[in-house]
Amino acid sequence: MGRPTPESILPLANFADFGLCRPILNALTHEQHVNPTPIQSQTIPIVLSGRDVLGVAQTGTGKTAAFALPILHRLAEAPRAPLARTCRALVLAPTRELAAQILERFEAYGSELRFRSALVIGGVAMGRQIKALASGLDVLVATPGRLVDLMEQRAVDLSAVETLVLDEVDQMLDLGFIHAIRRIAGKLPAKRQSLFFSATLPPPIAALADKLLADPLKVVAKAVGSTPDRIDQQVAFVDSKEKPGALAAILSRPELTRALVFTRTKRGADRVVRDLDKRGIEAGALHGNKSQPQRERIMAAFRAGTMPVLVATDIAARGIDIDDISHVVNYDLPNVAETYVHRIGRTARAGAAGVAIALCNSEERPYLRDIEKLMKRPVTRVELDRGSREASRRRRTCRDEH
Hints:
By secondary structure, this protein is α/β, with parallel strands linked by helices. Helices cover 36% and strands 18% of the residues. An eight-stranded mixed β-sheet has the order 10-11-9-12-13-8-14-15, with helices on both faces. A seven-stranded parallel β-sheet has the order 3-4-2-5-6-1-7, with helices on both faces.
C-alpha cells in the first residue's frame, strides 16, 4: 500500500468508526461526545494514518479532541516508559489558560489509560515542572517561553518527541513566540509527526508551516468568515465616552447569564472592570499582566457563575472554553476582521443560541466594514435610548451606515 492521500482518507461520522481503543471510547461516552465535529471527522483519520496536518480551525470547533484522541490511541497501542526528561508528544499553546485546558482534555479522554502528562507554563515556580520532567512524560503541554527556559536549564530533552502539535499558531506569532518556536523545532527529531492548527493562514504562518511540516494534508473546518447562524449579531454606534454606560446597560439585561467582554488592551480591560465595579456590576479582568493564581481564581469564578462577567484581551481569552456564555460584547472592535469572528464564536456553542453586541465609535467604523465584508453579511444595527440606555431593536440597512 502507498502513502495515504487526501482522496483515500475519508471523514467518518461516528467515533466508533475511527478504530479508537475501547478505553478512549468509554471516556468519550462519559464526556457525552456522541458524534465528531467536522474538524474531528476530517483530522482524526489523517493523524492515525501518520500524515502531517495543517488545520485551519477556530476555537470551539473541537480541534483539541482532533489531535488528543489519536495521540492517546497511539500511546495506548504502543506503551513504553519514556526516558528521563523526554516526552513522546509535545503540544505547544500560546497562553497558560489554553495549555491548561488542553492538558485537562487529554486527562479526560485518557481517564481509563495509564500515561504520564504534565503542564509547563510561565507564572509559576519551575520546581514542580522540573520534577515532573525528570522521570519522563508521555504528553507534555507547554507554552513556548517556559519550555525554552527549561531547555536552557537542561531540564527537558526533546530528542524523543514522536508527535508535535502547535495550536493557535497565529496567536503564538502575535505574541512574538516565533523565535522560541524555531529554537524548540531545532531540538526535535527530524522523523516525527507534526500537527499545525491556526484560525488564519497569513503568509508568515504559511512559511512556518513549510518549514515544520512534511507534505501535510490541509484540513479546513470552517470558512474563516463564517459564524454560527444561532448568533444574534448587533452593533450600536456610540461615542467612546458613552461606551461605559452602554456596556452597563447591556450587562443589566435580564436574559444575560454569562458575558465575555473584549477590549483591545490590558489597561482597557482593567479600566472597564473598575468602571463596572463602581456601577455595582461584578466582573473580573483576564490578561497577561495577571499572575497565574489570579488568572485561575478569575476563571474559576467565571466558570462557576459566581462572577458573571469576564473582561478579556484576545490573547488571554484563547483558553476559555465554556459552553453557556450567553453574550459576547466587543467593547472595542478589533482591527482584524477574523478576530471578530473568533471572538463571537465564544457564544452559541453546544447547540445554544447567543448574542454578540459590538460598541462602535466613529474611528472603528472602517473595522466594521471589513468585518461585514469578510462575513458577506451585515451586522444588525441597534439604537441605544439616550435616557435608559436600553437597546431597542431597530434594524437598518447597510446603506444607512456606509
